[in-house]
Write a structure and sequence with these properties.
Elements lengths: L2 H15 L10 H13 L2 E2 H7 L4 H13 L3 E6 L2 E9 L1 H22 L4 H23 L2
Antiparallel strand pairs: 1-3, 2-3
């Protein structure tokens, strides 16, 4: 297996894929935080810090801005009164869902241009890509 080529192809695909939605525009850090909160549910800022490639002051500032914009909310952590949990608001979830729906529509149009054989290969790759994601999350 040519892992160098696989890496390049994934990078090229990601470059296109992250730009597919043309609905509301956000910077990458904002989208990453919104996506993480959508996938992982309410989490502490320290846990969010572990998933994002931002330093704590930058993430704290971003969370404050997103809270001010009504896209996320903080509430007390029921297990530790000194900490708070961060979660998406309805508006934040709507942004994530609308971007996903738009991405699905655009990707569907691209997939429809593939041959039946190519679509079959792609369909078979979904579970493998999901497993790679799981392995990446398990590996420190």
């Amino acid at each position: 297996m040519d892992v160098d080529r696989l890496t390049t192809v994934i990078e090229d695909f990601n470059t296109i894929f992250i730009r597919l939605p043309s609905v509301r525009k956000f910077n990458f850090s904002t989208l990453s935080v919104l996506h993480t909160l959508d996938r992982r549910g309410p989490i502490r800022l320290t846990d969010l810090l572990a998933t994002e490639q931002l330093k704590q002051p930058a993430l704290t500032s971003l969370v404050a801005k997103l809270e001010q914009d009504g896209l996320l909310q903080r509430r007390p952590d029921p297990t530790d009164g000194r900490a708070s949990l961060i979660s998406l608001t309805r508006s934040g979830r709507q942004i994530v869902r609308s971007r996903h729906a738009h991405r699905v529509a655009k990707l569907t149009r691209l997939v429809d241009q593939l041959t039946p054989e190519e679509r079959a290969v792609l369909a078979g790759s979904v579970d493998v890509l999901n497993r790679l994601t799981e392995l990446a999350e398990e590996t420190p």
